[in-house]
Fold ABC transmembrane type-1 domain-containing protein.
Amino acid sequence: MFYFDGTFFKRFLRVLKVLFPRWCSVNVFLFLFLLCVLLLQQVVVYHVGLIPSTYYQVLGEKDLPGFMSHTVYSLIITIAVAFLYATEGYVTSVFYVTSRRDLSRYLHEKYFQDIFYYQLNVLDDVIDNPDQRITQDGERLCKSFSEIIAKLLISPFVICFYMYSTWSSTGYLGPVCVVVFFIISTIINKFLMSPVVALVYKQEQLEGDFRFKHMQIRANAESAAFYRCGHLERQKTNHKLEALIQTQNRLQLKEYGLNFSIKLADYMGSILNYIILAFPIFGGVYDHLTPSELSSLISENAFITIYLIFSFTSLIDLAMNVTDMAGVTHRVGQMMEQLGEWNCHGDQLQDTVYEGHISSAFSSPPNSHDKILVRDLTFEIKAKCNILITGDSGCGKSSLLRVLDGLWQQRSGFVERKVIHGHRGVLYLPQKPFLTDGSLREQIVYPYKDWKYTGKH
């Protein structure tokens, strides 16, 4: 099971290195620009929040010139904040698109290196549904990351500013109450978040299994029709659906508690605001002010205190987004770890040595070592020498070719390959033809795309 823990941060840092490979990258520029927009947005929001307090004062004093000038000022500020919010949304969307492009290209580079795609889909029993991890999970990771990361980074600056402003207007009691309230809420949410992260991971895994089952029927519809196996495949598909639904029900139950805690913190914050303001008012601190001045001051202080509470509760509200991001980060990060491990250990094939001599080979299926396919096999393949391998179905003829091609590793003995793999050396034809997307010409010269290059041979 995966949780919101050190493993998450380790995998998250691995993803960050892909999204921000160097300081002069496009993603770094977009991210810094987004930070600047958000900081400027907070400055304008502060002035927007003070608009009502000035209205209270000019209306209470029946100041018509002041009312007119303040209205013009308010309109300008309102247009500015609307522009900044729209800019934030646009930059966030562009940042999401570029992040997804870079992450997907990185995963494609590792996934299609050598035969890693074969090892992940056929031999590996740890990484489920690699196609889903690259497409859907990668998309959700970039989407959540682009929406919350900038807000998380500017939150400390916003909180410090409004904490100082609250201290100036209400004394030390205001900031202390808000901080204590936030700490208690954070501790509660931390305990509620971890099981949600684990269930998000499990749900994505089962979503992939369910989708793969339908893709399997789609790819083999004619074969299934010859068998008239609709009733059996319906049972198998419904079984995967039930497993998914049960996990989703458990996830929704866990999210119910987390949502309750988040919403409770939101509404408790509004009550806490007036409790904080009550202390200086009932303590006689503002007894020297006129009613209109007191109304203006209460409006101003209420905005500052409420926004401080809002800044804290916004972090709490992001808990749902963080849990979703943590779940898919585990899935993408786990796949990146596996691909990186294969790359470091040199498990990939080399395109420079293929085919030749097998000596004392002992082989079995990669995921079933108890089953022996070949024992003490020794033979040599030479150019211009035809070899016919016969035997009953399932005796290991295709498995022998998998060992020859390096798709499977022999358990003992050695395989000496002296001819390159490809059109200039040894070419293997799979039992099931692979028709990729593209023109008829590309199908003929596959796996090469350049007709002129391949036409020379």
Confidence is low (pLDDT under 50) at residues 347-355, 453-457. The chain has two domains: 6-345, 356-454. The two ends are 52 Å apart (CA to CA).
